[in-house]
Amino acid sequence: MRWGIDLGGTKIEGIIIDSSSNNQVIARHRLPTEGDKGYHHVLFQIKKLVEILEQESGLKPEKIGIGTPGSIYPPTGHLKNSNSQHLNDQPLLADLQNLLQLPMAMANDANCFALAETHLGIVPEVAPSAGVVFGVIMGTGVGGGIVVNGQILNGANGIGGEWGHNFLHESGGSCYCGKIGCVETVISGPGLERYYTQVSGKYKPLKEIVSDQKSDPLAKATMNRLIQYFGIAISTIINMVDPDVIVIGGGVGNIDLLYTKGIEEVKKHVFNPECATQILKPKLGDSAGVFGAAILN
């Protein structure tokens, strides 16, 4: 049995899957994160979730995988770069292992997404021989993870795949990371909504911006801007890593234009006459993170 936990900003999801039986789900449960109550409260929410899964399944874990916002900085073992800022600079992995008295494997949530889609999602169906997979998260934030020959590429700094904090355009403004014009500030959901507000003088949620393109010229302009900068940002991944497959998750990743005009825009900026990288929608959707965490075991 493989146990996985997906630690999100608003919810914590846990799962038990039977890897010997086509990864059948044995138990699954969600709890609110309640991060506003502080770091130690979140630790005990995770412990509570594990106890609920034990009760539902009648099983005890031998090891648990967990996906987190942010990543472990290898020299210190502390979490960093999390937009759930109560987790930053905390020894999350060590504290959880002490609290649960269990060995744990931990990875960034985007890495878990990439791992899940590589092993259980769209990649085995469409590109089973893919050696390099890049998993993109485009939602409230922008992140990424790299899987090479089935394994996560973490890197010396624990930031493998973190394309969301490369510079893209200064019009994105300030980012929580302290820099200006990051990919995340330009093509995340809040970034797109912020741009629409700036040019229109009124707020409109992203879902309406997408649906109102025919009737609202400024909504169309916002989507055109997304396509333009999506092409530049994704081409940087291809020029640097040259993956066989890029899988795009997150709420912004559901916008159909990315897979038509967006792909054509990517091709304009790739350093090659053609672009052989397949850019795909995910199969597992919101489930990918927790399945990827379980695969860490």
Q: Which key terms come to mind for this protein?
A:
alpha/beta; Nucleotidyltransferase, domain 5; 2 domains; five-stranded mixed sheet; 21% strand
Describe the structure.
- The chain is of the alpha/beta class.
- It is built from ten helices and twelve strands.
- The chain folds into two domains: 120 residues, Nucleotidyltransferase, domain 5 (2-Layer Sandwich); 154 residues, 2-Layer Sandwich (Nucleotidyltransferase, domain 5).
- A five-stranded mixed β-sheet has the order 3-2-1-4-7, with helices on both faces. The protein has a five-stranded mixed β-sheet with strand order 10-9-8-11-12. A two-stranded antiparallel ribbon has the order 5-6.
- Helix 3 packs across helix 10.
Topology record:
Elements: E1 2-7, E2 11-18, E3 24-32, H1 39-57, E4 64-68, E5 71-73, E6 78-80, H2 92-100, E7 104-108, H3 109-119, H4 122-126, E8 132-138, E9 142-148, E10 151-152, H5 183-187, H6 189-200, H7 206-211, H8 217-241, E11 245-249, H9 261-269, E12 278-280, H10 288-295
Parallel strand pairs: 1-4, 4-7, 8-11, 11-12
Antiparallel strand pairs: 1-2, 2-3, 5-6, 8-9, 9-10
